[in-house]
Design a protein that fits this description.
The structure is a single chain. This protein has about 325 residues and is α/β, with parallel strands linked by helices. The strands form five sheets. It has a four-stranded parallel beta sheet with strand order 5-4-7-8. β7, α4 and β8 form a beta-alpha-beta unit. The longest helix has 22 residues. The protein is globular.
Length: about 325
């Protein structure tokens, strides 16, 4: 009998982490914005064996540079491919859709992952994720007991923590030079966006919808999506809530956001129209001014290298007059 283990805490959070698809958007190059200086070219090389503490405090000793890697979450996979590890990927989750090459890699399951399948792939490294702990921990322990190196990547709640995720995957795989380059490029993009956002004199209020069936999920304080709104000089109408939370439709109407952003367009039919047609929403400023937008879920909800591109997508939706191409 195949053994499957749940990988995820709640349906709402799983939707945020797993669902969504779309093409990569290109960040806008703005004129008149000073670009930070290039970082030093010399980066300390990783020497194996390397000992790292993962997100759950496990000390993981990686004896040699991994040649076969399994990723259990799309954000881990996007980091790995951006680090140039595509030819080493032997297993990815069922939800991995970026880059396109990931579709050709063996699938190991989604929220329920196949322990025996992962073991059969004989990976040198398994990149798990902190968001998938709980009922999935027993399955991860079986992988450890089978002699596999399991590294649990942190559940990032800010850009700095995303940089930490990229750094630690770079350390675990001997790709620190690539990791430093990715982080530097992201920092430049974020700095450019912050500089433009600082010119905005009247910040807009925004409601972010990341799930609607059966409940409306949004992101409050302590999440990178809330930080993204802060970076573009906008106000999160759910900012007084904490984490990934359910918000009552009446509370959304009462908050009267200037802009509504949904990340469900790729997997909910007519997501924007559904929001506009909700009871009471006709009186909301965002609906009256046709400022309800669907944005790429992957770039806004995956804590990986494309997050800075997602930040630009959000900025262009909320402030098109400032961040126009």
């Amino acid at each position: 009998m195949k053994k499957f283990w749940k990988f995820g805490a709640t349906a709402g959070l799983a939707a945020v982490l797993m669902a969504g698809c779309g093409d990569t958007a290109t960040p806008v190059e703005e004129e008149g914005v000073e670009t930070p200086a290039e970082p030093p070219t010399e980066v300390a090389e990783v020497e194996f064996p390397v000992t790292l503490n993962d997100a759950v405090g496990e000390e993981v000793v990686i004896e040699e540079e991994p040649e076969a890697i399994v990723s259990m979450l799309p954000s881990n996979t996007e980091i790995a491919y951006e680090l140039g590890l595509g030819d080493k990927m032997v297993g990815v989750s069922d939800f991995d859709n970026y880059p396109e090459e990931a579709a050709e890699v063996e699938k190991i399951g989604g929220q329920e992952f196949n322990v025996e399948k992962i073991i059969s792939l004989q990976p040198d490294l398994v990149l798990a994720h902190e968001s998938g702990l709980g009922v999935g921990e027993a399955g991860l322990q079986q992988l450890r007991d089978a002699g596999l190196d399991v590294f649990v990547v942190n559940n990032a709640a800010s850009f700095e923590e995303v940089y930490d995720s990229i750094t630690v995957v770079g350390q675990a795989t001997g790709t620190m030079e690539e990791a430093e380059k990715i982080i530097s490029e992201m920092e430049v993009q974020v700095a450019e966006i912050e500089e433009l956002a600082s010119t905005i004199e009247e910040p807009k209020t925004v409601f972010l919808e990341v799930g609607s069936q059966p409940d409306i999920y949004t992101t409050g304080s302590g999440t990178f999506m809330d930080e993204m709104l802060t970076l573009i000089n906008a106000e999160n109408v759910a900012g007084d809530l904490e984490g990934w939370v359910i918000m009552d439709p009446e509370a959304i109407v009462e908050a009267n956001p200037d802009v509504i952003i949904t990340t469900e367009g790729a997997y909910v039919e007519n997501a924007v129209e559904q929001i506009k047609s909700r009871s009471g929403f006709a009186e909301v400023t965002a609906v009256q001014e046709d400022a309800v937008y669907n944005l790429d879920s992957d770039m806004l909800t995956r804590s990986g290298p494309r997050l800075s591109e997602g930040l630009m997508e959000m900025a262009q939706a909320v402030y098109p007059e400032v961040f126009s191409e």
